Structure formats: C-alpha cells, structure tokens
C-alpha cells in the first residue's frame, strides 16, 4: 500500500477553501475571491493547458523564475520508426521515460531535459505507463501513479532544488534509475557530448552533462541527496556495467578537448524494502558540482516535501495576487492567471547562491551584490509582448533584464539573440536584445546612468554589425566553450542594409553566380525580407538608445537604417488587385530586380494555383521559388522566416506613417489590412509554425502579433476590437490543446494578457500603448506602491466595441494611444462598451 500523501490533502483543502465563487459563465459575474485566503488565486492556474497541441509547455512545479524545472518526459513508441525514444511531455502520451531536471517552456526545440530520474521496482526500469486518472498538476505540485511498478511519484521545487518523493508498494525493493544521457533524439537530435558521474556518499551522487542542440556546448552540473542511504549501486557506461564509482571527465573543456570521454551513463540505486517514501533533492549549477552542492546545502527544508509545496504555492500566490479581477467567466480567469503564471517561468535566475555564474565566455564570474544573472531569453518572441508586459507589472525585474543583457555583452562580446544557459544559440532573426534594452530605458531613463546608456549603445552597435575582429577568439573554435558563432549571432545583414538600403536576396550568392557574397560568412545571409524588415526596426531601437546616450551621429546613422524596410514593398495595385491588396513585401536582388517574377503559368487571374498545371508549365518544388505567390510560406533559409509575405508585409511598427505611404496611402493601408484578414485561409502555407488563421493573419506565430492593433491607425479602429476579441475567443482555451501555437517562453501568454487588459504596445521602444477590447469588468494591478485600475462599463461578450475611453479622466491621444507614464498608482483606464460599431477615431 502507498503511504498517504499529506500534500494531496493539503492541496484538496486549499482548493476547497478557494472554490466558493459565483461565476455563472455569463461574462458579467462578480467574484468573491477577495474574501478568500491568498492562495485562492491558485485555483485559476492549470499547468496542463497547452500540454497537447502546439503549446509545447510542461507541467513542472517550478517556482517563479526558478532555476530548476523538474517535469515528466514521455516515452513515445512511435518515434524513430517504432523504436521509440524520450520526448517532451505531451498529455496524450501515457508512457514515461523519466522525470528530468531542466526544461524550456513552450519553445519549438527539445534542448535541456537533463538528468532523468525514474523510480521503479523489480527489474522494470524501462518506460512505464502513467495512470492518467491519478495525474495531478497544480501550482507547485505534480503527481502521478505508475501502473506497472505501482510507484507514486510526486514533484515540487524550490528556486534551485528539485524535490522528488517516491512512494513504493510494500514488500518491494525501492529502486531509482538515473539516466544522465536522456537525449530527446526523436525530435531534435539533442546529443550528449560528454557525461561525468560520481558517487559522492552512500546517499549522494553528482554529475555533469555537456550537450548540443540550440546550445552547442551547454553544460549542466548536478548534485543529489537521498533521504536514505542506498545499499545497492550499479553504473552502466555505454550500456556496459561497471563497478566504478566515478566515470567520465569532471573538467571537460568542450570543443578541442581530445581526451577520451563518456557519452552514456545510467546508474541504478537500490534502497531495499521499507515503509517510508524515498525523497531525493536535486540541485543544479552552471559553474560546477561544488556550485550545485552549495545550492542544495543552502536549502533549509530538509526532506520536508510538503513544506516545500506550501512555500512554492505561497511564492506564486504573491506573484499572481498582483492582479485582482471582477467579471469574466471561470474560463476567462483560468486563461488569464495561467497566462500570467507562464510569463514568470522565464527568464529565470541562473546563478548560484553565492553569486557565481557562468558568463557568455564560458568562464565563471562573481556577481556584484546588486546584480542577477538570468537565462532563457527567447527574445525574437518575447520582445513583442512578454518583455513590455514586465515593464508595466514588474519594473524592477525589467530593469534587471536590461543590466543582465548588457553584462552578457561584456562577458561574451556580443548581445545574444536567444540565450540558453549562458550559451549563444544564434537562433532566430536579427538582434532583438536591443528592443528589450531600448524599451526599458525609454520608459525608465532615471534608472540608468550615462555610462549605462553608452554601454548599451556600444553593445547594440557591435551586435548589429558583423566584424571578424570582435570575435576573433571564437574562430576556428578557439573558444572551447562556444565555438564559432559568427555565422548566426553576428550576421552581415546589417552591413548590406547600410550599403544598399536593404538586404539583397542574392547576398549569399558568389559573384560568379550573380550575387555579392564576400566570403564564407555570407552563407547565412538569408531570409533577406524577414531580416531586412526586423533589422530596420531594431536599428530604430538602437537610435533611441543613441538619443539617450547623446550620440547624434549614431542616432542619425541608425534612423537612416530604420528606413530599410521600404524597398521591399512592391506597390502594384493592378497586379495585386486579384488578392484585394495594393502590394506585398518581396525579396529583391542587389541590382534592384525582384527575385521572382509575377505569377506565371502556375497561377490564374484570381491569384489561385492552377491544377493540374497546363502543358509546358514546368513548376516543381525546386523551381517554385521562380514565381511570386503571396500564399507560399517558407520556414527558414529562403527569403521569409516562418511565414509568408501576407504576415511579413506589416513589420514596420516603428514607422506606421511611413508604411502607410509605402503602401500607397491611408486608403491603401486599410485596404491591405482588410485583404489580410479576409484572405484565403485554406491556401498553401505548408509550414508548421503557421496556425490560428483569421484570413492570413496568424495568431499562432509571432511575426504579426501586433497587426490587429494597426486598425487603430485607420478610419475603422473598431476592427481592432473585433479581431482581438475573435483571436482571444477562438485561439485561447483552458484545455490541453488551449494554446494555438508554441508558448515561446511567455510570449503567447503575454499577448493574451495584454488583450484581456485592453491595450497593447505595437512598437516596443516607444513608450505608448493603443487600445483593444478589455475582457473583464474591472482589473486592478499593483504598481509603485499602489494600484492601477482598468474598468469596462457595459461590458459583456456581445458588447465588444469601445464607445468611449479615457485615461486618468482624459480622452486618449491620436490613434487611441496613451503614454506609459500614465499607468501609475491611483490611475484608471476607463472603457465604455457597446454592441454597436462606433465611429470614434
């Protein structure tokens, strides 16, 4: 029999106490949560939302911004032609490969997932079936019964220590397998480069894993202690048993280290029969095993699992109670608070209790008392809403992010795009860190010194311009930790934009092939339209930093580069009338010619593909890029990133007036918006990141998250309210499939939060917001020692239009905007809602 779980009863009690409310699903009910204990808010968080479908999230009982994320990983028998292998967690899968220790929330990659622990009995140490009827996922707590072994597994965590509690059936030896390789091979090719393992004591083990996928030489160290000593110990190296208690390289140096190394270690521990559960505490570190040991020994919880759950939940209650809500349905509140929860999963603290952390140079540094090193910045996604949201609701943390990113420049020589455990992944487009830094600095300039502004400008300038000498120590793999990252971290797109006024699509081609490539480093000067458009915006952000720094020359330089989006737009009302548009952004060669011709024999006069193709029309996968068709989507490596021109034609958030002019004027801008939202949503997109269609607007991916709000710059702003309302209702649900696209480390959730609050920042770096459609009757959130209030009079699901709106008693500015500094303690954003389309502008 299992020992009864105290925490299960505690959780049931807390949920029972908080369950009294009068939500009736009408959208206008008033909650009585303010009469409940502070933990009452936790009932509105469901970590299983988005664990099926495309969300890619996991049910880890992580703390707010916690460094460690224990969570179940599945075994998928259908991968690798039926051979099976570990995979990220998906709720619909019921086989478990183990509970691994590190995770990324909602990205499209299978990196991390280090050190999988699996309790078992007898000899059943392979994948085991999860009893889904017993699975519990709450804030701070995860539990599931394992069918074949009759083991109950429970997880919780502190900031740096994961707690596992395993309850075993009577009369069985209590065993634990630790898989230090645990590669998610079936999806992404994550490989273990080197593994180290050591038995430290009769109740303690330690180790390290260096792996590659996004992170090329990403190393995590761990130290674990068990509540009882183990009597049996057996290690397997490359599937061969060994009696050794220490294997592998403790000081593996990464690329260039030619010593023999171990890449597969599995350890089995036997604790014998016993009535008590086995509790294991696992700490990690980026600096070394000593750092992991220090992190674990700094924890004062002993083995009191239930106390850890209670403390974890209280930490989350402190975060979530920043907001109080009236109105809305149970589903609305669940989506809101779960979304808020997800925005606090990362970036997370990534340094040891003594302040030591691994910098972007692979070296261990000591943090000053007022500095915190953070990790997992998915900035191509999160600069759009997740980081702007933090500047509103967590100013101090947003300021810390800016200082942390500048420090990453100091230790690594260049700003990261997508940082992972102090590793340059080089993932995604451009140099989005400048947006995050600029947005914080323009909103809170008094929080930074002149030296900070100058350092930020230097970091931005270096990161926006390819220079071999800056990273000369990286190449060829001179830095054993990071290797050659110039290909993806510092591409030459900016240099070409400055020279040509845009990034030529043939920049990656050699001159003899008609291109302008200079050397091998031009091989990745691709996705020219996406890079060109986004870099123009990033350059505008750099100009804002230059203004703060008082550097007029750099301001002028980057403002000029910020116009590099314009040459891509092909204004041809007659040609593109078949799509209802005046033109599209298109790839362009260095000589000014368009890369692909107007629709050929493969497309009819209505803009639809002809099937079957007429005789003599030789179009196939290899030649399809020789024609222009706005519905054709590209993933990576061609001219667009994860989308097609329908989505990318709108990326000039820093210069909406200029984009209007480029498109042919006010009327053309509105015409093109209408064409986007009414375009054929069934046309060939052939790209997995494109989900959540309203016409060809894509809610499930980031490039046009701002686009519904652009109607506020037209004569028909009520369409913003319609499409934001539609997106929130159709694409966000409190279900396992409730996220329409990858969560992407908080971005998808942050978009929902901003939509529910009723305002959005179209242009991070410019401290203004424009309105949408508020979801709740009243929202209050903490700010500067007080509260800011959002009220919606006459609010209901049918009254989705804004009849009037004021900020602190004053009408909004042009385009229904208001300034960031108007969100202040005691302030109020007040909406009057109606079911009629208003004429207000």
UniProtKB/TrEMBL annotation:
Molecular function (Gene Ontology), one example: peptide-N4-(N-acetyl-beta-glucosaminyl)asparagine amidase activity
Pfam families in alphabetical order: Glyco_hydro_92, Glyco_hydro_92N
Superkingdom per UniProt: Bacteria
GO biological process: carbohydrate metabolic process; glycoprotein catabolic process
Keyword tags: Hydrolase
Listed name of the protein: Glycosyl hydrolase family 92
CC annotations in GO: cytosol
Domain Glycosyl hydrolase family: from-to ranges: 292-834
InterPro entries: 6-hairpin_glycosidase_sf, GH-type_carb-bd, GH92_a_mannosidase_put, GH92_N, Glyco_hydro_92, PNGase
Occurrences of domain Glycosyl hydrolase family 92 N-terminal (ranges): 44-285
């Amino acid at each position: 029999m299992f020992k009864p779980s105290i925490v299960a009863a505690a959780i049931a009690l807390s949920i029972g106490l908080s369950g009294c409310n009068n939500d009736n699903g009408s959208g206008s009910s008033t909650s009585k949560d303010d009469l409940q204990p502070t933990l009452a808010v936790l009932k509105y968080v469901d970590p299983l939302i988005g664990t099926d479908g495309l969300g890619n999230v996991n049910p880890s009982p992580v703390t707010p911004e916690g460094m460690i994320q224990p969570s179940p990983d599945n075994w998928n028998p259908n991968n690798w032609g039926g051979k099976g292998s570990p995979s990220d967690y998906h709720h619909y899968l019921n086989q478990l490969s183990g509970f691994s220790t590190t995770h990324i929330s909602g990205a499209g990659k299978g990196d991390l997932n280090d050190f999988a622990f699996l309790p078992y009995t007898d000899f059943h140490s392979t994948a085991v079936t999860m009893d889904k009827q017993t699975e519990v996922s709450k804030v701070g707590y995860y539990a599931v019964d394992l069918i074949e072994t009759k083991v109950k597994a429970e997880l919780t965590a502190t900031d740096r220590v994961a707690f596992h509690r395993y309850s075993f059936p009577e009369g069985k030896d209590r065993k634990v397998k630790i898989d230090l390789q645990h590669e998610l091979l079936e999806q992404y090719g994550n490989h273990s480069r080197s593994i180290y393992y050591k038995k430290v004591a009769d109740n303690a083990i330690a180790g390290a894993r260096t792996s590659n996928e996004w992170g090329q030489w990403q190393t995590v160290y761990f130290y674990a202690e068990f509540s009882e000593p183990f009597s049996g110990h057996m290690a397997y190296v490359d599937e061969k048993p060994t009696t050794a208690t220490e294997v592998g390289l403790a000081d593996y140096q990464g690329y260039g280290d030619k010593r023999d190394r171990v890449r597969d270690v599995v350890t089995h521990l036997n604790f014998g029969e016993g009535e008590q559960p086995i509790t294991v505490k696992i700490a990690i570190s980026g600096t070394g095993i000593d750092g992991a040991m220090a992190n674990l020994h700094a924890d004062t919880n002993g083995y009191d699992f239930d106390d850890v759950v209670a403390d974890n939940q209280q930490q989350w209650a402190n975060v979530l109670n920043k907001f109080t809500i009236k109105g809305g349905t149970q589903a609305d509140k669940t989506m809101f608070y779960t979304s808020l929860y997800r925005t606090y999963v990362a970036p997370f603290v990534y340094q040891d209790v003594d302040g030591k952390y691994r910098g972007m140079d692979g070296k261990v540094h000591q943090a000053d008392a007022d500095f915190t090193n953070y990790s997992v910045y998915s900035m191509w996604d999160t600069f759009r809403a997740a980081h702007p949201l933090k500047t509103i609701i967590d100013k101090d943390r947003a300021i810390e992010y800016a200082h942390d990113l500048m420090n990453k420049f100091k230790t690594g020589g260049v700003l990261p795009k997508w940082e992972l455990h102090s590793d340059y992944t080089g993932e995604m487009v451009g140099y989005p860190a400048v947006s995050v830094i600029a947005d914080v600095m323009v909103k809170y300039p008094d929080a930074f010194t002149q030296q900070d502004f100058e350092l930020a400008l230097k970091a931005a300038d270096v990161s926006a311009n390819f220079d071999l000498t800056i990273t000369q120590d990286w190449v060829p793999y001179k830095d054993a930790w990071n290797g050659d990252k110039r290909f993806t971290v510092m591409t030459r797109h900016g240099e070409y934009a400055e020279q040509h006024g845009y990034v030529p699509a043939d920049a990656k081609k050699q001159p003899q092939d008609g291109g302008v490539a200079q050397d091998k480093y031009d091989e990745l000067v691709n996705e020219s339209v996406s890079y060109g458009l986004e870099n123009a915006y990033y350059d505008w952000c750099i100009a804002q930093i230059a203004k703060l720094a008082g550097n007029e020359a750099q301001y002028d330089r980057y403002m000029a580069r910020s116009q590099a989006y314009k040459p891509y737009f092909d204004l041809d009302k007659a040609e593109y009338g078949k799509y209802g548009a005046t033109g599209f952004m298109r790839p362009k060669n260095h000589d000014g010619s368009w890369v692909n011709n107007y629709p050929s024999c493969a497309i009819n006069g209505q803009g639809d593909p002809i099937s079957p193709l007429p005789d003599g029309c030789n179009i196939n996968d290899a030649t399809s890029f020789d024609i222009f068709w706005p519905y054709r989507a590209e993933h990576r490596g061609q001219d667009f990133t994860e989308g097609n021109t329908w989505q990318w034609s709108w990326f000039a958030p820093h210069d909406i007036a200029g984009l209007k002019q480029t498109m042919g004027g006010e009327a053309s801008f509105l015409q093109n918006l209408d064409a986007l939202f009414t375009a054929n949503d069934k046309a060939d997109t052939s790209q997995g990141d494109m989900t959540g269609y309203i016409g060809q607007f894509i809610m499930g991916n980031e490039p046009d998250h701002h686009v519904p709000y652009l109607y506020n710059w037209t004569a028909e702003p009520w369409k913003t309210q319609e499409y934001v309302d539609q997106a929130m209702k159709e694409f966000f649900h409190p279900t396992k499939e409730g996220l329409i696209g990858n969560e992407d480390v908080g971005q998808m959730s942050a978009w929902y939060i901003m939509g529910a609050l009723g305002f959005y920042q179209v242009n991070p770096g410019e401290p203004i917001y424009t309105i949408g459609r508020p979801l709740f009757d009243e929202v209050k959130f903490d700010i500067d020692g007080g509260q800011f209030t959002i009220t919606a009079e006459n609010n209901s699901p049918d009254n989705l239009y804004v009849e009037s709106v004021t900020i602190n008693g004053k009408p909004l500015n042009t385009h229904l905007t208001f300034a960031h500094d108007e969100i202040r303690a005691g302030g109020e954003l007040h909406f009057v809602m109606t079911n009629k389309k208003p004429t207000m502008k």
